[in-house]
Amino acid sequence: MSEKPQHRLGELMEQSNPPFRNVLSCVFGIEDHETRTYLVLLDYPGSTIEELASVLERDRSTVNRSLSTLVDRGLATRDRRLLDGGGYIYQYTAITLPEAKTMLHEALDAWTEQVHGVIDEFDGSTAN
Fold first, then answer.
1. Hey, where are the domains in the chain?
2. In terms of Cα–Cα distance, which of 30, 26, 18, 20 is closest to 74?
């Protein structure tokens, strides 16, 4: 993962029973359209930007940005496929749902541990 996600766990805590999509978006710090791209990519592994743009009914540049974010967050991989006539295209594949769930659990566990540390270290001083 080349870019550290900006968690939006505060948003998540405001919801009493958040849907999985919201959990994914908040924990990985991704936008709703990026979450949708990930979920669609689960059903279409090895897709090109053009193929995904068609399925998602979005323009190629938006899909390209979404895929770049997903790759940065470790939620998707990008592979280069050589074309018979020369050149290449990129194909994208989502990490499996169990892998994503493991990453979600790890991120939430790390955050919870950090909050527990803040609680444990508080000495009652109003300066903290």
1. 9-121
2. 30
